[in-house]
Amino acid sequence: MAEIRQFGPDKKQPAPFPGPVNLSSVMIQLPSEVKGKIPEDQLRERFAGLPLFINQDVAVAALYLEPHGEINEHDSDRPTLLLVIGGSGFVQVGGPTAPIQPVKAGDALLWPPFVLHKAWTEDQPMQVITVEYSAEERLV
After folding, report:
1. Which residues contact 68 (CB under 8 A, 6 or more apart)?
2. Is residue 86 part of a domain?
3. Residues of the chain scoring pLDDT < 50
4. Engineering a disulfide at 65: which of 4, 32, 69, 106 sits with its beta carbon 3.0 to 4.6 angstroms away?
């Protein structure tokens, strides 16, 4: 029987880190090594249920930006694939002087490692799936 992880809007929680505005998330999948570091009851509480775990250095999350929501500008040491599955908003990749690009449902983009990036919405919400993976690994 397959494991099922529900990640719809009814499962979302406020972002667990400081900085974002009007952002909620659901952790869908984490590397198996996380499961060994945190007791299962704490994982269930932190993520409103257990995420799926795989033996790869990959993390998948659903992010829900409400109107006037923002993922503050930051970088990461890992590439992140961003899949817009609903609504629309804007992204900026490359720091504050980089071009602002509109995105909508059906768009996908890559946030490269060690490059400043951000996403935000104006008058409507946006739902995205992020796939963050080790720079040494390939998605295919």
Report:
1. 21, 22, 120, 121, 122, 123
2. yes
3. 140
4. 69
